Amino acid sequence: MRLRRLSIAVLLLLSACATPEYQAERAICEGEWMQRIPPVYRQQMVERIRYEERPTGRQSCKTKGNVTKCVAEMTRISIPYVTVETVDGNAGRREVQIDACVARACQKKFGNPECKPPGG
Question: Which residues contact 12 (CB under 8 A, 6 or more apart)?
């Protein structure tokens, strides 16, 4: 599910730069290819890394007047872990087809694969 959310976020980011014409063609192609190559969800073990702050054992101390304040120095460490995620096994194949479909449609309608209107 995390991978799917990331994919959606990337698609939204990329489509934010696209023309409305491109977005319209992409929506048509996505609908077509979601039917031709439907999602096949599976559980998959993946390795991830999380980060933690841990004390180094050293301190930084500052004295002001007769008051001394000490702060523990910290270091950031990476901790690998394994988790199970749901992934769409057909996402890669489908995305290639969607991209090709959009490029063909844009080329046919606008004369370029980005769906940029003439003079735009």
Answer: none
Count H helices, E strands: the chain?
A: 3, 2
Dihedral of CA atoms 31, 37, 41, 45 in degrees, nearest 10, equals -120
Q: How far apart are CA 120 and CA 87, in angstroms?
A: 38
Question: What does residue 55 show for φ and ψ, rounded to 5 degrees?
Answer: -70, 145
Q: Using one digit for the tens of pLDDT, what is the confidence trace for 23-50?
A: 999 999 999 999 999 999 999 999 999 9
What distance in Å separates the CA atoms of residue 47 and residue 81, rounded to the nearest whole number?
Answer: 6
pTM of the predicted model over 0.90? no
The structure tokens listed for 120 are 């735009």
